[in-house]
Amino acid sequence: MAVQPAVYGASERPPRGDYTRAADDYTCAQNWAAYTAQDHDTYHRLYLRQCEQLPGLASAAFIAALPQLGAKERIPRFDDINERLYKATRWQLVAVPGLIPEVPFFQLLANRKFPVTDWIRRPEEFEYIVEPDVFHDLFGHVPLLFNPMLADYMQRYGEGGLKAARLGSCEMLARLYWYTIEFGLIRESAGLRAYGAGILSSHGELPYSVHSPEPQRLPLTLERTMRTRYKIDSYQQTYFVIDSFEQLFQLTEGDFTPLYERLRGLPEFAADERNP
Ligand code: PHE
Ligand code: FE
């Protein structure tokens, strides 16, 4: 993703990427030649392992669009995906060195540019990585950018982010991103499925989010979501469920300014608080 640091929490460690490569808008060239055989192998193994468990757990739209990423044996060239993506929804992938600040992140989304971290995790980070890498960003986020409804939602989210930044409300908006784009569940006719990138790129959280009796699953409402804090270093204890991407789109259509005003005065919910 290269999601704004607010989404992943202000990190105590410096980010891994080399930001001297980046232009003013934080984009850089995808350094494809720098990938090693081991990097490609890591991508391939992550891809295969995750693919195996998608049926019954991932949303139908995600499964349908996944082949658009191209060959699974090696890290794709973003420009190669872009040829298909631009035709499908007029979105483009741009490379970034890693997490970027929120305003440039919103700016890119508002222009239908999706920032993708270009480096991949080390083999010892196979199970879990603190920062989003190219596998999370590509595998988790990009298939649904081929979906017209989600594609439009993401652009509007970017525009809404620029507005939230002016209103000092990024934290509330970031929670909506977290509980939809990163950790969203959808009720499909065949059953509960994941559409959030953080879930779809995680081997453990994908079955957990759909099947575990441990977390609570609440119907998505703007108010509950935007008042709920989140944990970045454990499986979620609260998921929000939508009925359709259309519902998500309609729910977020209006001007959030009065909502931010109202919510500012209300108490927050802890990430694991059992109180709908
Ligand atoms: N409609 C929201 C606003 O006016 C912006 C937004 C759009 C937020 C889509 C999330 C998703 O602020
Ligand atoms: Fe992400």
UniProtKB/TrEMBL annotation:
Enzyme type, top EC level: oxidoreductase
Cofactor section: Fe(2+)
GO molecular function: phenylalanine 4-monooxygenase activity
Gene3D superfamilies, sorted: Aromatic amino acid hydroxylase
Catalytic activity: (6R)-L-erythro-5,6,7,8-tetrahydrobiopterin + L-phenylalanine + O2 = (4aS,6R)-4a-hydroxy-L-erythro-5,6,7,8-tetrahydrobiopterin + L-tyrosine
Keywords: Iron, Metal-binding, Monooxygenase, Oxidoreductase, Phenylalanine catabolism
Pathway membership, UniProt: Amino-acid degradation; L-phenylalanine degradation; acetoacetate and fumarate from L-phenylalanine: step 1/6
E.C. designation(s): 1.14.16.1
Biopterin-dependent aromatic amino acid hydroxylase family profile domain: residues covered: 1-276
InterPro entries (alphabetical): ArAA_hydroxylase, ArAA_hydroxylase_Fe/CU_BS, ArAA_hydroxylase_sf, Aro-AA_hydroxylase_C_sf, Aromatic-AA_hydroxylase_C, Phe-4-hydroxylase_mono
Family according to the record: Belongs to the biopterin-dependent aromatic amino acid hydroxylase family.
Protein name: Phenylalanine-4-hydroxylase
Organism (species): Diaphorobacter limosus
Name of the gene: phhA
